């Protein structure tokens, strides 16, 4: 573990196996310096245990950065279940996960991530109180996507202000990749703000629904990078800014909710050289974890969530201003600030 490139001074990594249910899970705690490590649980059919391990390391480090930039009293952690979320799920599997989480005595708080639903987390919650993102209970915060989308909308405007001198989105052409939970809510905000939307999704039903509601133009998933636009908003996959797509992008701003948009940190340098204002993903998409943090605190408070969200957007603005002033990539600036907040 200590020799892996993905190892970033993680405090601990826990492997769990439950013979009865077949649970194979890894919970990585990158840092508890700011508070209990918090981050969702992903269920994925990894090719190898090594892939699951590396993913847990990377994702948990990312959560430390995200929680620090949102100024939450939380560290970074992540759980991964090695399995197929379509075929391997049972209530008992998630109860076993709940017992695994419970054995960490509150140093790790979980929630939903890719492949894990609110219902799955409810089974885990039968065995531990250290899960969030629930739909019932005294502090339940429910689906975090609307808050994530609101943060992305406000952050996109903050980035537009830096690129165009105004955050008025009237008649701005905005391309949106992925119109699922976050992308769908985001498109409603953007349409109301008067933007001209060009959207894409591999899910034809989702794309039709959003196009009908917003008047958006639809393009094929493969063509979204070639559309000349003011702003590109990725809200689907990671690593979509890579050596293949970068030369094709003809936009001034990239601002979206997807995690891990840059294939490598160097892609941020290339964007900066191209004069593209890039809103670092783990800063702009922090609304969801802010919502979850309110639940973890024990009493869900919408006013606190709103105040934290506004503060997050100010932080994003500070990152973008500093990047412009110092001629550095925004992701490099954000990484440096986050590290300073994790290791005082
Ligand atoms: P989602 O599954 O609801 O939506 C993702 C959408 O992307 C789906 O409609 C899917 O069909 C589409 N998609 C998949 N592959 C695509 C492709 N090649 N081209 C175009 N579209 C494609 O997920 P979500 O909750 O909306 O999350 C979207 C992104 O935001 C993810 O990267 C997620 O990690 C990140 N994120 C989400 C939240 C949240 O609160 N939900 C918070 C922070 C970050």
What is the CA-atom radius of gyration, in angstroms?
20 Å
**Pairing-aware structural class of the strands and helices?**
alpha/beta
Largest sheet: 6 strands, mixed
Uncertain residue ranges: none
List how many beta strands DSSP finds. 12
Order of helices and strands: EEEEHEHEHHEHEHEEEHEHHHH
> Architecture of the largest domain, according to CATH?
3-Layer(aba) Sandwich
State the CATH superfamily name of the largest domain: NAD(P)-binding Rossmann-like Domain
Number of helices: 11
Average pLDDT rating: 96
Bound molecules: nicotinamide-adenine-dinucleotide
Distance between the termini: 25 Å
Describe this structure as you would to a colleague:
The chain is built from 11 helices and 12 strands. With 344 residues, the protein is an alpha/beta fold. It has 2 domains: 109 residues, Rossmann fold; 172 residues, Rossmann fold. The strands form 2 sheets. Strands 1, 2, 3, 4, 5 and 6 form a 6-stranded mixed β-sheet that branches. Strand 4, helix 1 and strand 5 form a beta-alpha-beta unit. Helix 2 crosses helix 3 and helix 9 runs antiparallel to helix 10. The radius of gyration is 20 Å and the shape is globular. The structure holds nicotinamide-adenine-dinucleotide. Nicotinamide-adenine-dinucleotide binds next to helix 4 and helix 5.
